[in-house]
Specification:
Blueprint (H helix, E strand, L loop, with lengths): L13 H9 L37 H24 L4 H33 L7
């Protein structure tokens, strides 16, 4: 008697899933929304039924955003200071505001990409 064939798991390539998640779409089907609110993922996709509440992104998206901000803002600050003579008071107002705006713009797409990565690797309850 032969053993039944193991269940074939559908391949989940990261690149297409991440591109969908960066836009806030379901990495599984691309049709449904990934987020119910700004940083809270939906319980499950309304189109395909894939559960998204099992992710464990935790603080990793924040670490990625901090790393990206450092690599974007520090060279920008150096170049602006070399090219222009902006008073220190103005710089003390400009750079923190720019950092907050960029962080707010980056955090949701980065969290979506982290969730997509976990989903493609079948991590943390994504079977």
């Amino acid at each position: 008697m032969s053993d039944p064939a193991p269940e074939q798991k559908r391949e989940r390539p990261f690149r297409p899933a991440a591109m969908l998640a960066l836009r806030g779409r379901c990495p599984s089907c691309g049709e449904g929304r990934l987020f119910a609110s700004f940083l809270r993922p939906v319980h499950a996709c309304a189109q395909c039924g894939q559960r998204w509440d099992v992710h464990q992104a935790d603080d990793f998206p924040s670490y990625i955003v901090i790393l990206l901000l450092g690599h974007i803002l520090v060279p920008l600050m150096i170049e602006v200071n070399a090219a222009l003579s902006i008073p220190l008071g103005w710089q003390a107002a400009i750079w923190p505001v720019l950092a907050v705006i960029l962080a707010a713009l980056l955090i949701q797409p980065v969290k979506g990409a982290v969730i997509a990565f976990q989903w493609t690797r079948r991590m943390h309850g994504f079977a």
